[in-house]
Amino acid sequence: xxxxxxxxxxxTGDYLKQGLSEAxxxxxxxxxxxxxxxxxxxxxxxxxxxxxxxxxxDGWQILAGLRRAGRxxxxxxxxxxxxxxxxxxxxxxxxxxxxxxxxxxxxLLARVRTLLRRGSKASEGDLLSIADLELDLxxxxxxxxxxRIDLTAKEFALLELLMRRQGEVLPRSLIASQVWxxxxxxxxxxxxxxxRRLRAKVDDGFPTRLINTVRGMGYVLDAP
Amino acid sequence: xSLLQPARRPSLSLRLTLFFAAxxxxxxxxxxxxxxxxxxxxxxxxDAALLEGKIALxxxxxxxxxxxxxxxxxxxxxxxxxxxxxxxxxxxxxxxGSRLFASRDMQxxxxxxxxxxxxxxxxxxxxxxxxxxxxIRTAQLSAWQTSAGNFRGLAxxxxxxVASMAPVTLIVATEISHHTxxxxxxxxxLWVFVACAALLTGLLGWLLTRHALLPLQAMRxxxxxxxxxxxxxxxxxxxxxxxxxxxAESLNQMLARLEDSFRRLSDFSSDLAHELRTxxxxxxxxxxxxxxxxRSAEEYRDVLYSNLEEFERxxxxxSELLFLAKADNGxxxxxxxxxxxxxxxxxxxxxYEALAESAQLTLQVEGQGAVPGDGSMLRRALSNLLxxxxxxxxxxxxxxxxxxxxxxxxxxxxxxxxGETIAPEHLPRLFDRFxxxxxxxxxxSEGAGLGLAITHAIVVAHGGSLAVTSxxxxxxxxxxxxxxxx
Lengths: 224, 486
Fold this sequence. Notes:
Protein name (chain A): Heavy metal response regulator transcription factor
Largest interface: A-B, 28 and 33 residues
Organism (chain A): Viridibacterium curvum
Keywords (chain A): DNA-binding, Phosphoprotein, Transcription, Transcription regulation, Two-component regulatory system
Number of strands of chain B: 13
Distance between the termini of chain B: 55 Å
Pfam families (chain A): Response_reg, Trans_reg_C
Number of helices of chain A: 8
InterPro entries (chain A): CheY-like_superfamily, CusR-like, OmpR/PhoB-type_DNA-bd, Sig_transdc_resp-reg_C-effctor, Sig_transdc_resp-reg_receiver, WalR-like, WH-like_DNA-bd_sf
Number of domains of chain B: 3
Strand content of chain B: 15-25%
Radius of gyration of chain A: 19 Å
Oligomer: heterodimer
Number of helices of chain B: 12
Structural class of chain A: alpha/beta
Shape of chain B: rod-shaped
Helix content of chain A: 40-55%
């Protein structure tokens, strides 16, 4: 999948390109607004990541240009400013998401995947599974190797999130926001404790660990 | 000088000076007018008394004349009786208008020659003998001016002793130049006096105003010396008059508040520098050590992970500082939706459940209440208080949240935990940025020390207040938020 990144700050642009490329995307990088809009209109991208403050045209103008030309790919804004008016303006212009610098790369990756998934209808089956772990959404039941596992409501929601996005590293902030609706950084290790307890129920006593900690980034559910 | 001239300001001392001068001038003018009137009346009274006597004499002479021949001898009689009265003139006018007698040089004004101008004899007698002299003065005295001088006189119609003769008009007048001269001089003196008095009171008023405003000048000088470096300056209260004392006190209180805010701000700057220096120096030394020799990929990865942790701490500190900066600049405008506090608390209990259980803490919420506010901000504020309580609670105890909306104006929310008592000297500064009651507490065990400052900022942005008490092992944060308008 092709992603366009428009970012004038050299280091940020480079690491965004490298990080997204290594995550399996094809990335084009533009260093200013005019090149960015030109690229966006001449190529076919699945997603655009735009910095707000850019030389030439700013992020808002690129977005307006895209929408005028009938391009409706999802657009994610990066900004150093976090003003409510900016968010409102972005959303009015048709931006799909908004990340304030500094952000964790895992967070960006998770959001990019969310935006890309939005377009294609995700499988809404009743049963999620990985290796010998099964999660039955309808009956709210979890089994591993045929054994029933009792989970609290929040543990179930956490496991459901990890299973729906298996293989993806989910940052703590995303987990807090998706499972508990807490949209700010907590200065405690709440998520760590919650994941540890879930892991004790899901992984303890089984030869393979499915829930893994990615140091400094977050958690991932993956079969080895 | 600034290009923008300030609008013309009225000068207080000028206005007071003008007011004093105008007021004293008006009072003195009124007084002078009354004195002039009184003197004038007094002179008139004197004249009237004199004229009355002389008229009686003349009347007696006229009545005693039994024939025309007697009348012809009158001038001699009059001259005798009027001698010694300098300036007194007498005229007797017959009914046909001919002068029976007139003092030398006497010019009688036409107005007095008219028959109706003369006071009838009976009336004169009545007034003169019944002590109504005042009536004569005001009603019948007339004044006129001739080449010989100023005169004031009275005309009386009367019958002579000659039975066959028609009534005559007797006119007696006295020269009053010395009176008018005196009055003129008096008037001039009065004017000069009033002018001098006005000037003098104006001057005194100006001096007095200046003197009264001197403390203001002193205050101005002190205020001009106040800069960020010497906010400890206070206006002297000893010599300030009562009226200005409250102003000076208010200004002093303002200075005290500024000094406190400024101290907090500079503390904050140095704390900020310190908070930044530790992770930055960790990052630098760790990276330098790692690069000093070739290492395995595993070791490099370890360094990067360790760096990542520091970066994350820095990043969240920056976000929190930005949040606080927005609050400071009034840019944090909470939305106003109805937030049910007990619901928010239950959601937060869900969030902190795992953490609380691992610390063997129970979480309870009692009561209920709703406030208008920004749900996500309030949740963040409550989350910080709850995480603070969880962090400092003694294992095995309960964290109790009480919500009380019985007071109509405010909803009160208390979060109470049992744990170490916070020393009283720390309590007022607990909401300061980077402030930690326990200076030795290791920073990695918690956030940057901004959580309570953020909570405080959010509560203030909602028009509420936040307080903390800590006694006998119970620490209680009390949040008061305005209740929804009915």
